[in-house]
Write a structure and sequence with these properties.
Layout: H1 17-24, H2 36-41, H3 45-60, H4 66-79, H5 83-95, H6 100-106, H7 117-132, H8 137-144, H9 149-172
Helix pairs in contact: 4-5, 4-7, 4-9, 7-8, 7-9
Length: 185
């Protein structure tokens, strides 16, 4: 990634009231700082708002168990070499029940026997979607044995959504927010 953002975050003095209000809704503390992805995408508020609604639906109100969702997101971040995405989702993954060891393993090539069968099927799905733009029949069968139709649909959308996010973050050069660390190198 380049050392400088290709498109920097939108400074406060360049925001209109509607954009400032939109960004305020994404802050943990309404008077606190923006995260860089949001203040960068604020340069295109007509895309930011619907994208954030879709991403928020997957992140906060989805059919997948949060731990499984974060396993998919972190693996996709690693597959896409997306430092920013990785940095944001490590704490979320820990809060969702992933261990530090599991998170570290998501940043390495998959080997048989490293995961439970359920987790291995999710890692395989993320890897196959990344490499082949589809889940293989064998992996699908493993997933369908325990996930319902909504969860199977959502799994594909989560991986696709975080590919989109990774492509944008990497291409725009969005800088990692203070206090977070990118992918292990």
């Amino acid at each position: 990634m380049s050392p400088e953002p290709r498109i920097p975050p939108l400074p406060h003095d360049e925001r209109d009231e509607a954009t400032e209000e939109l960004l305020r809704g994404f802050r943990v503390d309404p008077d606190g700082p923006d995260i860089n992805i949001m203040s960068t995408l604020a340069r295109h508020p007509t895309l930011l708002k619907p994208w954030a609604a879709f991403g928020g639906r997957l992140l906060y109100r989805g059919a997948l168990v949060p731990r499984e969702r974060e396993l998919l997101i972190l693996r996709t971040g690693w597959n896409c070499d997306a430092d920013y995405e990785w940095a944001q989702h490590v704490p979320i993954g820990l809060a969702a029940g992933l261990t530090s060891e599991e998170i570290a393993r998501l940043a390495t090539p998959r080997v048989d026997g490293g995961w439970s069968d359920d987790d291995d099927a999710l890692v395989c799905a993320a890897d196959e979607l990344h490499a082949d733009a589809r889940i293989s029949d064998g992996t699908w069968k493993r997933l369908a044995a325990r996930l319902d139709e909504q969860q199977l649909i959502e799994l594909c959308m989560v991986v696709g959504q975080y590919h989109l996010v990774s492509f944008v973050l990497n291409s725009l050069g969005v800088e990692i927010d203070p206090g977070l660390e990118g992918l292990p190198r």
